[in-house]
Design a protein that fits this description.
The structure is a single chain. The protein has 227 residues and is mainly beta. The protein has two domains: 4-92 and 214-225, Immunoglobulin-like (Sandwich); 96-206, no CATH class. Helix content is 7%, strand content 50%. It is built from two helices and 17 strands. It has helices at 145-154, 208-213; strands at 4-12, 17-26, 33-39, 45-46, 50-60, 63-72, 82-90, 96-99, 106-109, 116-124, 128-135, 156-160, 173-179, 184-190, 202-206, 217-218, 222-225. Strands 3, 4, 7, 16 and 17 form a five-stranded antiparallel sheet that branches. A hairpin with a 3-residue loop joins strand 10 (116-124) and strand 11 (128-135). The chain is elongated and about 70 Å long. The protein starts with a strand and ends with a strand.
């Protein structure tokens, strides 16, 4: 994903500890977010209360450079000889749109990580628009099924094309699990109350950002000596 995170300093106070870093992103990653996990010399996770605080953001040589900070809400001075820091980056992804008369299957792939939503079939009935889809080619990436069912309900929806960038209450619909293990779903949208419904006026919006924000890219773990 062409991302670098450099840890600049550790500020050890009496009541808290600050981890300062510089993150460098490509231009398309200007909305990426750094998240940090920290562990002591016994392997115990250290609580981070405020993560990814942006102190300064500049554009330089076609890159976005962010000076950031994460806060540990306690002093760790004398408590551990080092900390291991695992940086993760939630990659930003634009929404994708599929026309209702588009040939299926249509696979939408993330440009920056291994995520996908495939619209396998679109059915148009008198009162309903139905589409079958699969998330991540069935790979749950060790996340709970509830996460994917929420994605299916809230982030693969029918919207009016002229309002596709407006997030509001979705058109009434139901979601059925076709195959839990394969992350396959069917959504049925009720269009009976939409006056003068026209196929050309509506699209399927796939919010890839919601998927990628919850599956951050892991970078290499680094050890920082506190002595």
């Amino acid at each position: 994903a062409e991302i670098n995170v450099h840890f600049d300093s550790i500020i050890q106070g009496k009541a808290s500890t600050a981890i300062n870093y510089t993150a460098t992103f490509p231009i398309e990653g200007k909305h990426d977010q750094v998240r940090i996990e920290a562990y002591d010399d016994q392997g115990n996770e250290i609580n981070i209360s405020s993560d990814g605080i942006d102190l300064e953001t500049v554009k330089k040589n076609n890159r976005i450079i962010v000076k950031g900070r994460s806060i540990i809400p306690q002093s760790i001075k004398g408590e551990t000889s080092y900390i291991e820091v695992l940086p993760k980056v939630a990659l930003s992804e634009p929404d994708r749109f599929i026309k209702l008369d588009e040939g299926t299957p249509v696979e939408i792939n993330s440009e920056r990580q291994d995520l996908a939503v495939e619209i396998e079939n679109i059915t148009v009935q008198d009162q309903n628009i139905i589409f079958d889809f699969q998330i991540n080619n069935g790979n749950n990436m060790d996340l709970e099924f509830l996460f994917y069912s929420n994605i299916a309900r809230n982030d693969v929806i029918l919207v009016k094309e002229t309002e596709k960038d407006i997030y509001q209450e979705p058109i009434k619909h139901s979601v059925e699990v076709i195959n839990k293990d394969d992350l396959r779903f069917t959504s049925t949208f009720d269009i009976s109350k939409i006056k003068d419904f026209n196929l050309k006026d509506y699209v399927i919006r796939v919010n890839m950002g919601s998927l990628s924000a919850n599956i951050p890219n892991e970078l290499e773990k680094v050890r920082i000596d506190l002595n």
